[in-house]
Amino acid sequence: MACQALVGGMHVAPVLIAQDRSQTGLHLELNPFGIRALLGLPAAELSGRVVDLAEFGSRRLVSLPDRLAATGSWERRFAILDDVFLAHLAEVAPAAAPAPEIGEAWRRLIVAGGGIRVGALAGEVGWSRRHLADRFGRELGLTPKQVARVLRFERAGALLRQHGPMDLAGVAVACGYYDQAHLSNEWQAMAGCSPGTWIAEELPNLQDLAGATEPDSPV
């Protein structure tokens, strides 16, 4: 699928997106609840999917990639985004807001960086664990446990990007993993490669990271 503009939901597995050697573009991250406001559907409908922005049918959204490409100023591109999204928001029929307990559960997960047990989270919002998983999953497409996994993974990646060489065992502890082996297993599931491979490919300046070898790798 060749697209100028892609819209993706939350994923718990790696996604391969092919691209030209040289490209420019904008990467915009939306709060899952903002998807309801901007696109008129719950985030669950995009979970695990990557679709063409044109599928949402708005003439403003369909023409947005060409307008951005034809503009030479980044300041003007951001202004176009603001104008298009604000105009589109006025067109989209308001969607029913999710239960406040779902929003509070999401907020707590974000604040804790995924480091909160689902049972404790359910107790905080006043629902049973099963009811929370069901309602939360229907709105966001992922259960609280899955969102916690994504947030821990993102937090670990952010630590490596922000602080440079770090011991992976220390990163694991800081991000709520049981140990380095747990981090490595989750990284393989989320990124499709080991932490060491990810570091070498995504952060080449960190290739000498202390502790970057996998737990079962020869030293």
TrEMBL record:
Keywords: DNA-binding, Transcription, Transcription regulation. Pfam families: HTH_18 (PF12833). Coiled coil: none annotated. Residues 116-201 form the HTH araC/xylS-type domain. PROSITE patterns: HTH_ARAC_FAMILY_2. The keyword DNA-binding applies. GO terms for molecular function: DNA-binding transcription factor activity; sequence-specific DNA binding. Transmembrane segments: none annotated. This is AraC-type DNA-binding protein. It comes from Amycolatopsis marina.
